[in-house]
Amino acid sequence: MGSLGVWQLRRLSEAGAVRLLFEQRIAQEPFDGTAPPADPDLRRVRVSGVPDWDHYLLLAGKYMWGEVGYQLLVPVRGAGGAVLVNAGWVPADEVEPTLARERAVVGERSYEGLARVFSEDAGAAGTFPLEDGYQRRWRGISPKAMAGGVEVPAFVVYEGEGIAADAEIPDREPPIGGWRTEAPERPHGQYAFTWISLMFTLVLVWASASTQRIEPAAKPPR
Fold it and tell me: What does the DSSP assignment read for 26-43?
């Protein structure tokens, strides 16, 4: 229990370093998505190009406000190449109307958001079948596999504005974009307190039990 408490204190320190790095990264100027830096993760990014809605992608099992839906991804093709953009969350029953609205916006578009780097995942498609020879639905993100042979960098642009952790999401029309301006954290300090408290409680119980005198049982009369 003591070791677990110390481990959680170490995790608390690591989380603080992650939070500081996150704040430093999002404070930097946005970079061009077709000319990313060596480490684009958690950096703001701009992408300009034509979204290829014929090859849209749906990331399944995403909930908002207690409603199941998808994250809608699309390759955006610009002069410097293609970048995979996560346009935002769409309710499961509004995919087609949302796509119709997006397709109606013709020509080049600009997207700005947060870059997140993902490793390639051989199981990202899960058990979803191909649709007309194309892998439309996915369980996880694997940028190069999702792009279907189109050369894209290893990051995805989460389109939208930064939103504070305790703020309501202002967007209400799908696709609902945005990203949190604070790194997600777990209560490592509370976990450490719990484990260390349990350790001392166990020691006190053991010490108390060890000092109690146990009277021998009386012998039955002959």
Answer: HTSPPEETTS--S--TTE
pLDDT digits (tens, 9 = 90+) for 31-64: 999 899 999 999 999 999 999 999 999 999 999 9
**At a CB cut-off of 8 Å and minimum separation 6, what does 128 contact?**
60, 135, 136, 137, 138, 139
The C-alpha torsion from 29 through 35 and 40 to 45, rounded to 10°, is: 50
This prediction has a pTM of 0.76
Provide the H-helix boundaries in 57-215. 95-104, 143-146, 188-211
Q: Dihedral, CA atoms, 44, 46, 147, 151, nearest 10 degrees? A: -110
Round to whole Å and give the CA distance between 177 and 26.
17
The H or E element containing residue 11 is: helix 2-26
Q: HSE-up of 14 (CA within 13 Å, CB side)?
A: 8
Q: What is the mean pLDDT of residues 71-88?
A: 93
What pLDDT was estimated at residue 140? 95
Sorted by sequence, the CB contacts under 8 Å of residue 206 that are 6+ apart come out as none
Residue 137 neighbours by CB distance under 10 Å: 17
Over pLDDT 70: what percentage of the chain? 88
Cα–Cα distances (Å) from 26 to 12, 139, 159, 161, 181, in that order, read 21, 27, 14, 11, 8
